[in-house]
Amino acid sequence: MKMSDEEIIRTIEQEESVAYGINDSELSQQRAQSISYYLGEPFGNEVEGRSQVVSYDVQDTVESSLPQLIKIFTSGDQVVRFDPKQPDDEAAANQETDYINHLVMEKNNGFEVMYCWFKDALISKNGYVKAYAEKEYEESTETYRGLTDAQLQMLAQDENIEILEHSAFPDPTAQGNPAEMMQMVAPMLPQPMLHDVKIKCTEEKDCIKIKNVAPESIMVSVDTQGLSLSESRFVQHREMMDISELEEQGFDVPDNVQFTEDDSFHVEGNARDLYSETYDRTYDTDKKRALVKDTYIKIDGKRWRYVVIGTTIIHKEEFNGVPFACISPMLMPHRHIGRSYSDLTMDIQIIKSALIRGQLDNMYLSNNGRYAISDRVNLEDMLVSRPGGVVRVQGEPGAAILPLQHTAFPPTSFTMVEYMDTMKEKRTGVTSYNQGLDADSLNKTATGINAIMQAAAARLELVARVFAETGVKELFMLVHRLVRTNYTKPDIVRLRGKWVEIDPRSWKNRADMSIAVGLGTGNKDAQLMHLQTILGAQERAMPLGVASPKKVYNALIKLTQNAGFRNPEEFWDDPGDKPAPAPPPDPKIQTTQMTLQADAQKFQAQTIVEKEKFEAEAKLDQQKFQAETAIEMQKAQQKAEEEQRRSQNDLVIEREKLQLQADLERYKADLKAETDIKIAVIQAELQAQQMAQQAEQEARKQQIEERRHQEQLTATTKAKTVVRGSDGKVSGIQ
């Protein structure tokens, strides 16, 4: 019976009303509370003026377990491995294993996906990821010059190429060729042309996308048993999207669709909002956003996918399975929602915070106690507590100020904090030993520490095993199915250091998969010891024919992966499935062979002795001849050197004689020149002295003449005095 869209919408709304998810206020509140505890938010019971410190037990537990869980899944080059269906299917299964691991871990940044996925599960009970196929379009612009007509036609026929610019010009090389002659004969024939073009090439690629989905965005029917959603009656993914995003994904959105926003799942989103990260769209009025419900529901035994906006179905199709994978650290039998590390440690965080707050408050009271004071004490001075502070008091201070005694905090509170840490370690398996944080570990026995670490590691390995066997395995199976059903052409990728062509269209429908991560085998040191023991046993077993080179190669691969190298093929060559070595020969035959071998060795030794003796004699004769030859050559060389030295001495003597004569002549010339210069200098000095004396005599004469002239002038111009006698008469002039 075919249902109308209105009936489908009513069915979806009915499923939403009873499903796990945002309509379950208790679950949403618990998950929001877990996020708040992880972030160390206040509890709400804080008292002003009292300690408000919060212990980060939830965060410490989650962050301490994440490195070990992530390391288990990302330390090797394979997370999962597909099992072959038959003997001739092993190569194909290995190739599919490599390619799917490549898509998940490299193409989709599997480390980041698993990190967020695992953290969601450890905090919010369940973690979800979504895998889906989509088309990607890569555009590139290229320019070609001098294309012929045929080459241009080939480009134009390619549906992935768009010609953006085009210019044509006659082919200059066509002059004088048969085509030009034919033009002269038949002018109606087209002239050969060359073309410059600019093109845009759009390449369509099939790709698989994996993204993390917030737990509050997923709704699941409450009758779902277990983590797998493949058989769930109802699964819905809610997401706020722009209409333009929907149209880019190929959905046809009607103009009259209801654009509504749903704030019901913002309880958990607001718990994560530390820095006002909610996108403000008040100014972005051109973009229309709506709550998109990607719904997968079973109707009449068939699973359908409906994409709903408001009360409008914009897409419907019959769908096989669901594109989601789910994990939870602790499974609840017969239930979809599991338990998280937050559930195990939130009460411990409250108790430890209360204990630490009490200890700090008591310390504050010890440092800044309470006092009973009279009206004779200055209240402002009393309210200020600081070293060296003065309190003004009228009268006797002891009678005006009375310290109030407070009860000391019991020492057992510190024991309680340690007890709560021990309880947390027992619940979660995350201890100070496997974190390398216990400073007293060196004082404990190695056997005891190893037992504690193994017990703690077993809890974490159980969580990793749950992740691997549920959501991780389902994710890889989902990616395998998406690749097989959506890829339309081969893909060329680099796997194990080689470029290979992968054609998923020829793949088989895989249902068997094994987990390839290192689980349940202890830590790396224990694994190293086991692998070294196995390699030693294989070395002893190879002569017996029970260990082939291929088996030894597998052990070496595991040993290299245990050392942390993701590509062990760089160190070892795969011997293939070579047959085991033949069994040892019959002891009698072996004895005969040993006798023959000994005789051969004896003969060979005698031959070597004779050969060495002959070589020694020949070498001695050669050395004697070389010595005599060297002596003769040395004598001849010495004679030639003496003749050469004699000739060189004569030349040196003649050269020195000529040099001495030249030096003597140069000395005479230098001495004569120096003497002439000195004589000239002396003559010049004498002449200068004579001239100076003459000038001095002339100056002295001139001075005498000037003095005489001055005296005469002075006598002439000097004032005269009339001299009178006693009678008053002039008697003379003075």
Q: Explain this structure to me?
A:
By secondary structure, the chain is an alpha+beta fold. 50% of the residues lie in helices and 17% in strands. The protein has helices at residues 5-17, 25-39, 57-74, 90-107, 110-124, 149-157, 178-185, 243-248, 266-272, 341-367, 379-383, 397-400, 412-428, 446-486, 524-541, 549-562, 587-717; strands spanning 80-82, 127-147, 161-170, 193-213, 218-220, 234-242, 289-299, 302-309, 312-318, 324-327, 370-373, 401-404, 491-495, 498-502, 513-515, 722-724, 730-733. It has a five-stranded antiparallel β-sheet. The chain has a four-stranded antiparallel β-sheet with strand order 3-4-2-10, sandwiched between helices. The protein has a two-stranded antiparallel sheet with strand order 1-15. A hairpin with a 2-residue loop joins strand 13 and strand 14 (498-502). Helix 2 crosses helix 3 (57-74), helix 2 packs parallel to helix 9 (266-272) and helix 3 (57-74) crosses helix 10 (341-367). The radius of gyration is 53 Å and the shape is extended. The N and C termini lie far apart (173 Å).
Task: List the keywords.
four-stranded antiparallel β-sheet, 17 helices, 734 residues, alpha+beta, extended, five-stranded antiparallel β-sheet
Could you write a compact summary of the structure shown?
With 734 residues, the chain is an alpha+beta fold. Helices cover 50% and strands 17% of the residues. The termini are far apart.
